[in-house]
Amino acid sequence: xxxxxxxxxxxxxxxxxxxxxxxxxxxxxxxxxxxxxxxxxxxxxxxxxxxxxxxxxxxxxxxxxxxxxxxxxxxxxxxxxxxxxxxxxxxxxxxxxxxxxxxxxxxxxxxxxxxxxxxxxxxxxxxxxxxxxxxxxxxxxxxxxxxxxxxxxxxxxxxxxxxxxxxxxxxxxxxxxxxxxxxxxxxxxxxxxxxxxx
Length: 198
Prior knowledge:
This protein has 198 residues and is α/β, with parallel strands linked by helices. It has helices at residues 36-45, 55-60, 77-90, 119-126, 166-187; strands at 7-12, 22-26, 48-54, 69-72, 96-100, 132-141, 149-154, 196-197. The longest helix is centred in the last third of the chain and has 22 residues, at 166-187.
């Protein structure tokens, strides 16, 4: 992190307790996103963490499996369900967490609403009621230096009713993350209001 980024800033509205179980969902803009969960869990959350990663990336970078990641094949529906069920089982441990990138692929930063696959909503309906679902916005900018600055905005737990359709749930999660990204883009590299360097 120190070699890659000029500075790292964080804004944190959610801190898990020792009894918490949490699913963190993040936007996916760069290869480095795969290491950010390791950093966040080591220094901020300290939970029993796992992460879902696209199988092609796991094949290219097998060391991710050594730091708690497991693969998902989005091109095979049966394989996708197996991976999601494995994710649910991993959350049965106390103080467990799961990191997921619901866009399913690296997507350029945009002011538009992100587009999620349906897996996050499916997980939400299958998970126990006490599991928190927390959006995390990741944003990089180079306004002040050729080396990028990284902004991490950890939002509050969001708990929509489980009676919603998968499409409406997905839209809810997309809007929650878009809100964090918009707030971050408005201050990153300018005032940095609400963020602190780490």
